[in-house]
């Protein structure tokens, strides 16, 4: 029997059984490893004869191979399993992230959609100058539109505004407008609206849950006739309603007033209003004859920057009023509107001591200082170049030369009654203290207006329908620095659409030497410009 060397592994008696780990442990520990072989023996068989010092195992290499293979397979399976787990975890994480991202995107898109939907609703709705519930304001707007643009109550009730479609009115609406016109002493309008109400009732038009009878309408008509001095008409209406509805509506009041005979009310409108209404109804810019410089009606307005010039159209010489085309771009005007759209507040009138909401000015406004918008700052600079007037707003450099841009939005019926821009008395705001007064106005149109909304100069006879990006420029002070009373102007009510403007008021401060006073006390702005040109010529001739 020949023994050849085959590995024999002594297994530690304390170890129970054979394991892959023991195998390697003992192989690496020289003292504890027997190397022996047995001819003919099969690898892996236990040699019982060598059990003297413990349980010696004869390890068959095949077994080792199998064990190694098994171990490798198991290890590989474990690794694969781990990999699988990792892959599953990664997939789950990716799916969760994708789902979250999709949900967030959907939510953001939805929020944006609802916001832009709301915005588009807001821009498409025809906003009354009055807030919801302020029926008086809405009614006054309609009466203003009716009188300025000579509309009939019956057309308006059908929603017909000079051919443009508006909302149709119910008998309740027309009755309330009739009532309002009565309280505003607009007796003719009141009768017109009450007659329309009777017609609508006779046609069976719904009163939208508001019980309104012809007798109630007639009782109010009786009162209107009485105040208009038509006692006999008032009496005959009373005779009619005291049988049909003796206690309804204004019946009792009419009965009392017929006994007292109140003094007739005088119509409210004056000549000034007719001029205003006529100018507001003009569709085109009214050119005022310019006897001094006919060739200068249309000219290029040179700026203080060479080759930088704008098309200017002169509308009046005394007072000096002109329009400058394309002073701004759509991007700039849209940005000004966007800047203020969430902070507009109802415009007020008044003085330093008290400002209040008034029917003389109906619109929403906000201010933009140059420091808060580079577009505003650029525009101020452009206005300086174009007008030749200082427009700085640096408080450290002394009193300000301009106010912030005053951005105004007018809705349906929104208007500004006839007024002058400069402050009178001691009304000047502290922020402009020491700046003098508003010597010039540059009014920038930030939108077109479908119908109405012109700026009119009632004394100068100038009407300017809004054109987006056009600027209207005028001097409020004569060259001798006196307030120019020919600059009385107004914003006509908006009939269809919306109107956006930005006012830029230029003050005396910084402009004392920029706005020259001319050679004669009554010099016009054009005279001054000519004097300056001649002066420069003489100066350059002399050189
Ligand atoms: O809206 C207009 O056209 C005129 C506005 C105006 O005169 C003003 O805001 O002072
Ligand atoms: Fe004004």
From TrEMBL:
Recorded GO CC terms: endoplasmic reticulum
InterPro entries: Oxoglu/Fe-dep_dioxygenase_dom (IPR005123), P4HA-like (IPR045054), Pro_4_hyd_alph (IPR006620), Pro_4_hyd_alph_FE2OG_OXY (IPR044862), TPR-like_helical_dom_sf (IPR011990)
Domain Fe2OG dioxygenase per the UniProt entry, residue ranges: 401-508
Gene3D superfamilies noted in UniProt: q2cbj1_9rhob like domain, Tetratricopeptide repeat domain
SMART domains: P4Hc
Transmembrane region(s): 63-83, 89-111
Example GO molecular function: iron ion binding
Signal peptide range: none
Domain of life, per lineage: Eukaryota
Record keywords, A-Z: Dioxygenase, Endoplasmic reticulum, Glycoprotein, Iron, Membrane, Metal-binding, Oxidoreductase, Transmembrane, Transmembrane helix, Vitamin C
Cofactor: L-ascorbate
UniProt name for this protein: Prolyl 4-hydroxylase subunit alpha-1
Annotated source species: Elysia marginata
């Amino acid at each position: 029997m020949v023994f050849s060397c085959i590995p024999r592994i002594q297994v530690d008696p304390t170890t129970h059984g054979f394991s892959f780990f023991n195998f390697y442990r003992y192989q690496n520990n020289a003292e504890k490893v027997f190397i022996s072989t047995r001819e003919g023996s099969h690898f892996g068989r236990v040699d019982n004869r060598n059990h003297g010092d413990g349980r010696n195992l004869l390890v068959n290499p095949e077994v080792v191979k199998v064990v190694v293979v098994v171990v490798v397979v198991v290890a590989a399976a474990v690794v694969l399993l781990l990999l699988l787990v990792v892959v599953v975890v990664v997939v789950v994480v990716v799916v969760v992230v994708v789902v979250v991202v999709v949900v967030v995107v959907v939510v953001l898109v939805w929020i944006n959609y609802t916001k832009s939907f709301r915005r588009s609703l807001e821009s498409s709705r025809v906003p009354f100058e009055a807030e919801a519930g302020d029926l008086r304001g809405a009614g006054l707007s309609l009466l203003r539109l009716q009188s300025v643009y000579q509309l009939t109550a019956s057309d308006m009730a059908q929603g017909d505004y000079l051919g443009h479609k508006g909302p149709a009115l119910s008998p309740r609406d027309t009755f309330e407008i009739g009532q309002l016109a009565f309280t505003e002493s607009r007796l003719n309008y009141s009768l017109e609206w009450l007659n329309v109400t009777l017609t609508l009732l006779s046609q069976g038009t719904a009163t939208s849950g508001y019980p309104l009878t012809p007798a109630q309408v007639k009782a109010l008509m009786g009162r209107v006739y009485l105040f208009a001095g038509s006692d006999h008409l008032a009496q005959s209406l009373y005779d009619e309603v005291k049988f049909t509805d003796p206690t309804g509506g204004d019946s009792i009041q009419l009965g009392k007033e017929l006994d007292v005979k109140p003094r007739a009310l005088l119509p409210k409108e004056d000549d000034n209003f007719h001029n205003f209404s006529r100018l507001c109804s003009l569709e085109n810019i009214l050119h005022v004859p310019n006897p001094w410089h006919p060739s200068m009606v249309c000219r290029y307005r040179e700026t203080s920057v060479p080759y930088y010039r704008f098309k200017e159209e002169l509308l009046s010489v005394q007072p000096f009023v002109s329009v400058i085309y394309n002073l701004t771009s759509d991007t700039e005007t849209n940005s000004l509107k966007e800047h203020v759209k969430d902070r507009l507040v109802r415009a007020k009138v008044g003085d330093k001591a008290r400002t209040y909401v008034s029917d003389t000015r109906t619109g929403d406004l906000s201010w933009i200082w140059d420091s808060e918008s580079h577009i505003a700052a650029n525009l101020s600079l452009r206005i300086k170049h174009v007008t030749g007037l200082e427009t700085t707003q640096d408080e450290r450099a002394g009193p300000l030369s301009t106010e912030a841009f005053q951005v105004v939005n007018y809705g349906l019926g929104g208007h500004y009654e006839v007024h002058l821009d400069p402050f009178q008395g001691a009304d000047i705001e502290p922020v402009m203290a020491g700046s003098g007064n508003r010597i010039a106005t540059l009014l920038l149109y930030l939108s077109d207006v479908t119908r109405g909304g012109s700026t009119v100069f009632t004394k100068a006879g100038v009407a300017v329908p809004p054109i987006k990006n056009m600027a209207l420029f005028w001097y409020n002070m004569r060259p001798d620095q006196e307030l120019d009373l020919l600059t009385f102007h107004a914003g006509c009510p908006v009939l269809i659409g919306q109107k956006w403007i930005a006012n830029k008021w230029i003050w005396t401060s910084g402009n004392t030497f920029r706005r020259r006073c001319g050679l004669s006390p009554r010099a016009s702005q054009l005279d001054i410009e000519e004097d300056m040109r001649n002066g420069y010529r003489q100066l350059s001739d002399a050189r």
